[in-house]
Amino acid sequence: MKKLAAGNWKMNGTKASLTEVTALLANHPAPACEMLICPPATLIDRLAEAARGTALLVGAQDCHAKPQGAHTGDLSVAMLRDVGATHVILGHSERRTDHGETDALVRAKAQAVVDAGLIAIVCIGETDAERDAGKTLSVIGTQIDGSIPMGATAANLVVAYEPVWAIGTGRTPTLAEIAEVHSFLRGRLRGLIGEDAGGVRLLYGGSVKPSNATDIFAVPHVDGALVGGASLKAADFGAIVAALSAA
Ligand code: PGA
User: Fold this and answer.
1) Roughly how many angstroms between the first and final C-alpha of the chain, as a whole number?
2) Exposed, middle or buried: residue 42 (CB in 10 Å: 0-12, 13-18, 19+)?
3) Which residues have CB under 8 Å from 106's CB, separation 6+?
4) Per residue in 52-103, pLDDT tens?
5) Which member of 92, 101, 182, 221 is catalytic?
């Protein structure tokens, strides 16, 4: 299995930000892991052009579940594929919170992504209150059961475990806590999709940075990272790519 370093730029970046990608590719032209950036939708086309013939993969941060139609402001999977996206992040906690996305909607979107031949990165994670109440594994189990599309395989599904309280806060779970969730996820996925579960990349996300990446990548069943803030700077994301390549 090839590990995956995925950057999620969220609502950050303009055309000028593409200089960061130039710097990233100059310093990491051929990493041993896969390297993906999901910029805002306005930059997918340009980033895909810049990534052509390089090791960089380009993805989107969301999509609509329907193929086309009267959905003002939304983008279909076919549109994202048309401009060069190969991956789509789905069910990020900020979408679940800001836009009320449910597991059922996340699954419908993920279904559209895999049906179109793209790769779905399905995000799940517990809140602070859920962890404090000892509900982490039950919350995550429910989310994964409800969000995984039919026909998911190691080739078209990536799962990102992102504790809501660790996103953008600088706080991370202990390595033992990450290990517990990732091993639980591997088993739960095996029940859902069978033997292919062994090859599904399980990413950890939430305040991953150069200083903690090596330790996190040594945790069993951590096959990469979904990186927010630290993916905006080529030096930081490059250091995370290098740590994953060495893991
Ligand atoms: P962060 O975000 O790295 O800024 O904590 C992670 C994410 O939301 O994917």
Assistant:
1) 12
2) exposed
3) 90, 91, 96, 122, 146, 147
4) 999 999 999 999 999 999 999 999 999 999 999 999 999 999 999 999 999 9
5) 92
Q: What is the pLDDT of residue 222?
A: 98
Asked about 162 being catalytic, the answer comes back as: yes
Question: Using CA atoms, how far apart are residues 197 and 190, in angstroms rounded to an integer?
Answer: 5
Of 180, 95, 185, the closest CA to residue 148 belongs to 185
Instruction: Choose which residue among 11, 36, 208, 232 to substitute to test ligand 1 binding: the one with the highest number of ligand atoms within 8 A of its C-beta.
Output: 208
Measured CA distances, 236 to 7, 8, 15, 220 (Å): 11, 13, 20, 23
Annotation says 20 is catalytic = no
pLDDT in tens, 210-222: 999 999 999 999 9
CA-proximal residue: ligand 1, atom 7 (nearest): 228
User: Which two three-digit tokens encode residue 73?
Assistant: 């402001």
Q: With a 6 A CB cut-off, is 164 part of the ligand 1 pocket?
A: no
Mutate to test the pocket of ligand 1, among 122, 207, 233 (most ligand atoms within 8 A of CB): 207
Which position has the token pair 């930081």? 236
Average pLDDT over residues 160-179: 96
**Six-digit token pair at 34?**
């896969």
Q: What tokens were used for 14?
A: 């303009």
Contact 202, 176 (CB under 8 A): no
* pLDDT number for residue 153: 97
Ligand 1 center from residue 69 Cα (angstroms): 32
d(CA 63, CA 197): 24
